[in-house]
Amino acid sequence: MRKIYLAGNWKMNKTFQEADDFLYELGEYLEEKTLRNVEAIICPPFPYLELVTDMAEELPLSCGAQNVSEYKSGAYTGEISAEMLSSMEVEYCITGHSERRNIFGESNSVVNAKIKQLQEHFIIPILCIGEKLEERDAGKTDEVVLSQLQGSLKDIKIDGNLFIAYEPVWAIGTGKTATPQQAQEVHKLIREWLRENYGEDVAADIPILYGGSVKPGNLKELLREADIDGGLIGGASLEIEGYIKMLEIAGNLK
Ligand code: 13P
Fold first, then answer.
1. Least crowded by CB within 10 Å, which of 8, 136, 154, 242?
2. Is the domain defined by 4-251 classed in CATH 3.20.20.70?
3. Which residue ranges have their beta carbon within 6 Å of ligand 1?
4. Environment class of residue 132 by beta-carbon count within 10 Å: exposed (0-12), middle (13-18) or buried (19+)?
5. 19, 210, 231 from 221: Cα distances, Å
6. What single-letter DSSP state applies at residue 43?
């Protein structure tokens, strides 16, 4: 049975106390319950990473960062390096999120440099790609997604050390989810691109997550699609009840 990944991207939310409370409850749940084919990944803001990595030592939980510097080390005030993340046992890092691309102006070449930094330190990048509404309406979804893949993965070797997240920008935080069919179409396109560029084995191995208004009410239908291996979940991962419900749904999937 294939593995399902449920990555909660908290974005810039929660006080320290709120993060601690959420993780305490998640810890209680994970201690009691055996999740067989599901991996829970929490991507908190930087200051709370250690809360998650500490828990990950004892429990079936993984920790992801939301961002990393494109630079190695040195005079880059306010930046966090891949080496720092690795020294804290962070396993994953989101790169190329549409909020980083659109609000902070990250280009494919910056995303590419970040992925290289992460790979040097054995952190698995979760590469986000996805089209805006006007691009979808203009029939440019495939073109946009493929050019983000090409640009972000330029000269990058993949050896079981990369996740991709398809996040259509129009579905992020809007309550509008892509239909399972719409998501599957793009996931299939991504898988085909990986096959052409990296071969059959790599293409089959890379988890492709869907992100954009995933919630307990639509998760099951999305996960039923052949090329959807999990979710990158924003808003609905902030409430412990909802996140646990999604772990249950994924765990009970036949
Ligand atoms: P929402 O689940 O809030 O739409 O956010 C999706 C996302 O951007 C996850 O990275």
1. 154
2. yes
3. 9, 97, 167, 172-173, 211-214, 232-236
4. middle
5. 29, 12, 12
6. E
What 3-state class would DSSP assign to 210? strand
For the stretch 5-42, pLDDT in tens is 999 999 999 999 999 999 999 999 999 998 889 999 99
The CA-atom distances, in angstroms, between 235 and each of 13, 93, 100 are 9, 18, 17
Could you state, in order of their start, the residue ranges of all structural domains in the chain?
Answer: 4-251
CB atoms within 10 A of CB 168: 28
For residue 16, report the phi and psi dihedrals to the nearest 5 degrees: -60, -45
Counting ligand 1 atoms within 8 A of each CB, the residue from 11, 43, 172 with the most, and so the one to mutate, is 172
| Catalytic (active site) residue 167 | yes
Mean pLDDT across the chain: 96
Q: Read off the tokens for 3.
A: 């593995």
Nearest-angstrom CA–CA distance, 230 and 210 = 6
What is the per-residue pLDDT across 200-225, written as a single tens digit (0 to 9) for each?
Answer: 999 999 999 999 999 999 999 999 99
Asked about 192 being catalytic, the answer comes back as no
- Give me the amino acid identity at 134: E
Quote the CA–CA distance of 119 and 138 in Å, as a whole number.
35
